[in-house]
Amino acid sequence: MNRRNFLSSALSAPLLAAQAGNDVSERSPQAPASLPRPRWLEDGLIDAGGSHEGFLFTVRRGGQRLDARRSYEHEQSEEVIRRLKSQGVEVFHTHLYKGFGMEAEKSEMEDARRAAEIAHRHGLKVDSYIQWNTLMYETFFAEEPRAKDWVQRDISGKPILLVYGYQQSFRYRPCFANQNYLDYLKKIVRYAVEEVKTDFIHFDNFDLNPEPDSCHCPVCVEGFRSYLKEKYSVARRKERFGFENVDYVNPPQWNAQNPPQRMQVIFDPAIQEWVEFRCEIMARALRQMAAFAKGMNPEVAIECNPHGITGGNRAWEAGLDHARFLKSTDVFWTEEENDPALASDGRLISKIRSYKLARAFNNILLAYIAGHPLEAAECLAFDQTLGYAGEDPLRPHILEYIAFYRRNRDLFIKAQDAADVAILRSYPSITYNNARAQLSAILAEQALIQAHIPFSLIFDEHVADLSKHRVLILPDSECLSDAQLASIRQFVDQGGGLVAIGQSGLYDEWRRVRTKPGLADLIDGQKRASGYEERVGRMEISGKSTKKEVGQGRSVYLPGLHFDGALPEMANYFEIDNRFWKRPKNWEDLVAAVNWVAKDSLPLHVEGPEYLVANLTAQPGKRRLMVHLVNYNARKAPLPAPVALSCRTPAPATEVRLYSPDIPEPQAIASRNERSAVAFQVPPVKVYSIAVINW
Ligand SMILES: [Zn+2]
Q: How remote is the CA of residue 149 from the centroid of ligand 1, in Å?
C-alpha cells in the first residue's frame, strides 16, 4: 500500500481515547462517537463452549489424538449445545476462523454456521472465535499472493511470528497499520455477522510482540512519521524533538549492548511516541472492525483477548493501552496466570485489578474461573456476572455457581461499584517507568485489597472529573499534565482527600522534569526529581509521611511504599509480576493516610483477616447495598470466626440478608442501625458470602 492510501484509511479514522491532560489541540477535534452497546449484555452473561479450535489448525499444529476429527464434530454437536442450555449456559462459544485464509477454512466456517443455527434454535446466543493476529502463510499466500506485503516485518525484513513455543513458525503476524489486511479481516467479520448471524465476536491474540520484534514494514515507518505530523503542530514537533521535520525519524533500533528488555526508564521522545503509535494502531484497527460489525448489527458484542492488569508494561511490550481500545469492546478476556489464592509466603494473588479495569470502562471481563469455586466467587464479586464457565463437560462446582447466579441474578444486574477511593493508573507514569510506577500502583492496590477498603481504578481521562470520589491515591504518578494537576488541585480545594506517593507530579506527560513540583502547594515533604540518566539505578525511599490541610480538603504525602522483604530481581521489561503482589511493609501508613484524608468516613468497615476481601456495590433504585466477601484462603480453609461489619447507608437499614453459594437458603441477619451506618455480623465465610442491606 502506498503512503497516500494509508493516510486516507488508517489515519483518517478518528483518534481514539484522547488521553486526558494532553493538550487537546494534539488530538483529533472530532470526538469519537460511541459505539452501540448490545442490550442483551446488560444483564450479564454465561458463556461456555464448545471449542474455539478448528480441525485444520489441530492437524497443522501436530500432536493431535487420532480421534481429533470426532472431537471437533462432537464439540459443535446438538448434544453438547442442548446439554449446555439445560445447565443454564446462555452463550455458546465456538470456532469460526483461525487465520489460514477463507478459502482454506471455508468448509469449517460452514460447520460453524450450522452449529450457530442449532444454538440459536435452542435459544442460545453464539460467540464466534475469530483469530485477530494470525496469517498462516502456507495457505494464505496461495489464496492471496498480495498478503506477502501484509505481514509484520522486523528491522531486517523477516516476518514477525506469534510466540507459541518452538513449533508454530507458520503463524505470521499481520500488520494492523495495513488497510489491505484489515479489509480482508472485514470479510471474515461480515461472514460472522451475516452468515453465522453471530451475537458475539471474540478476537483472539490481541497484542503485539515486544521490542525488538516491532513492525518496521514501509506502512509502519511512513505511518509513524505521518502520525507525528498529524498529532503535533510544527511548533510542538520542535518542542518535542528539537526539530520540526520528522520525515527521517525511524522506529527505534536496538543493539546487543542495549537490549530493549533492560531499558528501565523511557526518556527518548521518539521511543515514547513509537510506543503510543503502536497502541494507537491496535486501537484504531479494533475500532474499525467493531464499527464495521455493529454497522451490520448493533446488537453484536465485541470482545478481544489482550490480558488485563498483569504488572507488565503493556503499552511498551504489547502495544496495548486499555484506556484506548476498551471503548471499542463490550467484553474482554484475560488469560493472566493470577488465579486467586493466598500463597504460603503471604502473597495474596488475584485478578481484582483486571476486573476493576473492566468496570472502569463498562466492560465485562472473561477469565478462566472453573479451576476452583474461589475463582468463580472472585468473578461474581468483582465482575458482577459469571462470564466464561468453561468447556463441556462443565465442572460440578461451576454448575452450582451458575445455579446460584441465575437464582440471585437480580443482586448483580446494574449493580454499581460503591467505592469512595480511587487509585490512578497513569499511562505515561507506568509506561515510561514501569519499574517504579507500576510497583507503586501494585503495592497501593494490594494494601487496600488486604485492608478491606473498596476502591476503583481510574485512568488519565477520568482525572478531568474527580467529583464522584472522596479520596484520590497517586501511586508514584510521576507524569501528570497541567490540566490534570489543575483538576487535582480543585478536587482537594473542594474537600477531596489526596494521598500522593513518591514521585507523583514531578514530571509532565512527556516525562520532562518540572521545575516546580506539580503538587508543590498541595503536599509537603517531597524530594526533587532527577532528569536524564544513562544508567538508571534503584532509588532509595526515605522520609516520613506528612499531613496537610488544603482548602476544604486534606492531603498526605507518603515518600513510598516499601516492599515487604528483599525486592525480587526485576525480570525482563521490568514486569511487576505476582512475585511482587505482597502487602507492603508500611501498608498501615497508607491505610491511616486514606482514613485521615477521608475524615474517617469510609463507607465500609470489616473486622476480618487480611485475606478476606470485600467489594461494595449499590443498586440505589432498589434501595440496597451489597457487601461481597471472598475468602482468598478458601483453597485451604474457611474463615475461623464470624466477621463483624459496619456499612454506611443513605437511610436506616430495614433488613440485612446473607446470600451464599455455600448455604442452601438466604438467611436473615441481626443488625442494628448506628448513626448513619448499619452494624452486623456474618457467619464464618467459607468461600463467598454476600450481605445484602436494604434501606
Ligand atoms: Zn507494519
A: 9
